[in-house]
Amino acid sequence: MENILMFKQPPCFVSHAAVGGREESRGPLADGFDLFDETDRFGQKTWECAEGEMGRLALSLALKKANATQRELDVLLAGDLQNQCVASAIGLYTFGVPYIGLFGACSTCTEGLLNLACLLSSDTGMRTGAVVTSSHNCAAERQFRFPLEYGGQRPPTAQWTATAAGAFVLSSREGEIRITEGLFGRIVDGAIRDANNMGCAMARAAADTLLRYFSASSHEPSAFDAIVTGDLGRIGSSLLIDLLRERGIEIGEQHGDCGVMLYQFQKQDVHSGASGCGCSAAALSSYFLPKLRDGTLRDILFLSTGALMNTTSVGQGQNILGIAHLIRIQSSKM
Amino acid sequence: MENILMFKQPPCFVSHAAVGGREESRGPLADGFDLFDETDRFGQKTWECAEGEMGRLALSLALKKANATQRELDVLLAGDLQNQCVASAIGLYTFGVPYIGLFGACSTCTEGLLNLACLLSSDTGMRTGAVVTSSHNCAAERQFRFPLEYGGQRPPTAQWTATAAGAFVLSSREGEIRITEGLFGRIVDGAIRDANNMGCAMARAAADTLLRYFSASSHEPSAFDAIVTGDLGRIGSSLLIDLLRERGIEIGEQHGDCGVMLYQFQKQDVHSGASGCGCSAAALSSYFLPKLRDGTLRDILFLSTGALMNTTSVGQGQNILGIAHLIRIQSSKM
Predict the structure, then answer these.
(1) Which residue of B has its CA nearest to A112?
(2) What CA dihedral angle connects B78, B82, B86 and B87, to 10 degrees?
(3) For the purposes of burial, counting CB atoms within 10 Å of the CB of A288, is it exposed (0-12), middle (13-18) or buried (19 or more)?
(4) Mean pLDDT of B147-162
(5) What is the model's pTM?
């Protein structure tokens, strides 16, 4: 159960794309995005459909870069934060690709990439697949908190759901940037009931996965160029570093968090940082994969982190549960 | 893309269990269930937690039958109908097993079994895993329609969400009952906007998957002892048979639908039949797997069918999308 999944024939990233909205276009990672819509509407009548359209555009852009069409995809894995993951279904059904719906909250990006890597390593003949995850600030606010028009105030621990989608095409053939190892997360009691402090609920899950990884691996944290978490934000990131330090593991120098990186602290009103299924996906596509491609990074651990809750469970006094999946991404670029 | 996934070393069912509530205990499949709670509460304070507890009990029972503990599970796949799949998270986190959250609505059972079969056929060393899916009538009514106390009327096309959970332990070793083939479904526009007629929205997806299967396979429908769909109900089943007949495929003699089988027609007030993530899971565990074990059935196609929608998407006038995943289950019992 504690074994790291190691790929004998590591699947590779063929292409990837990130799409974002207005806030994302003003953030530090903007240069690496493929497309922005400053209206956040993406030509749709509802925020919910706008999110679906972001996913559709991200996959279209990734397929274009791969010089491929949907006919070459054996399978498509996707998920989002909308109830019953409707954004992914609405946005992606026109591709007509065999579809695996995932729910991992904001952990969905890495959950999908690791699951797809396993599928491409199976004896069933699947060769090429894609992962798409998305989130939309306005759809998430309406669903999880209040409609925007209400103007609800948020505490400093709250995070800003990213309006973003990421798409990734993976292949079982040899390539430059490969997923060489992975670890599916366990569900961890975040010991938090405050839906405005999900970074801390997820930090415990990230700590659990990293402790499992380093106890099973022969590597120290310093062996990696970066150890990246999904969307813990500033407050959750600080807790993660403390939790690991208590157990004798120091990741401070290597650690980066996509939720911290996506926006400009203080200049953008995002409180503890970014969150959402699109957050780690957009950061992976816009920043980390290009750095692995150009050789600036060679070997990273990448985790997406999810808070497993809904408005009813929080209203009924349930603790927020967390999960964090991990992949190791290595580049052979000299 | 149209290739049937064929397992060179087909994973086997090690054990399985079904748990149900009051209506299920009165249905024709009751003898095959492992546990009922006539109160539908399973010792919990909320319907939502009762669903989580059903999943926990189902997995505990399946592990007991497998003479195994959670420590032997390399991975656990689960999903349900509650927003953000909270029932699965709450019910299963205490097992502490690496977890893949799925969302496929009522298709989740077969989605999970096929995904797990692929994982067990990968080169990553996973040997044993489990799938758990659940639904609870009272949690679903509150979330998708009205709280029970409202006493809302339902039209004849409506289905009754089953209060049921199924759990399945699969292994990569050789065994008597094996998943030999599979086909992940594509998302299909159900061309229906009525959330009280989901059987018809899903029937188009079931037809799509079966047409893909029979166009790629050398087998005729008559080669199978049974062709089982998840929860089309009476009305959706009738549409499926018509849709396939239009394309020259006749499955009437082999076809069974878990949603039709779970309750006694007319004696139980379930209108078009059962639905929910627990429906096909409970029917597979309580009826089909025992029949494959005793040799009454030898070779079946099993599909779970899902309607991909939420209350917002229906309210915004979106069509209900459908999906249907397929596995072929063969028994070597003489």
Answers:
(1) B100
(2) -70
(3) buried
(4) 91
(5) 0.98
Q: Taking the mean position of all CA atoms in its chain, how far away is CA B193?
A: 23
Q: Do A93 and B187 touch (CB under 8 A)?
A: yes
Residue with structure tokens 């526009």? B189
Which DSSP symbol is given to A121?
A: T
Helices B108-120, A108-120: axis angle to 10 degrees equals 50
CA A37 and chain centroid, separation: 20
Indicate yes or no: CB of B96 within 8 angstroms of CB of A186.
yes
Alpha-carbon gap, residue A294 to A296, rounded angstroms: 6
The SS3 call for residue A83 is helix
* Cα B200–Cα B201–Cα B203 angle in degrees, nearest 5: 60
Interface residue of B48, B94, B124, B189 to substitute, partner A, most A CBs within 10 Å: B124
pLDDT digits (tens, 9 = 90+) for A105-117: 999 999 999 999 9
DSSP per-residue string spanning A2-33: -PPEE-SS--EEEEEEEEE-HHHHTSTTGGG-
In angstroms, the separation between the Cα of residue B28 and the nearest Cα of chain A is 30
B78: its two tokens: 């689960």
Question: A198-225 pLDDT, tens per residue?
Answer: 999 999 999 999 999 999 999 999 999 9
Q: How far, in whole angstroms, is CA B269 from its chain's centroid?
A: 21
pLDDT of A1 over the 90 cut: no
Rounded average pLDDT over B269-276: 94
Are B313 and A125 within 8 A, CB to CB?
A: no
CB spacing of B122 vs A126 below 8 angstroms: no
Determine how β-strand B164-171 pairs with β-strand B188-189. Answer: unpaired
pLDDT higher than threshold 50 for residue A87 = yes
Q: What's the rounded Cα separation, in Å, for the pair B327 and B228?
A: 10
What is the residue whose two structure tokens read 């969905």? A108
Mean pLDDT of B311-327: 96
Q: Which chain B residue is nearest to residue A120, measuring alpha carbons?
A: B122
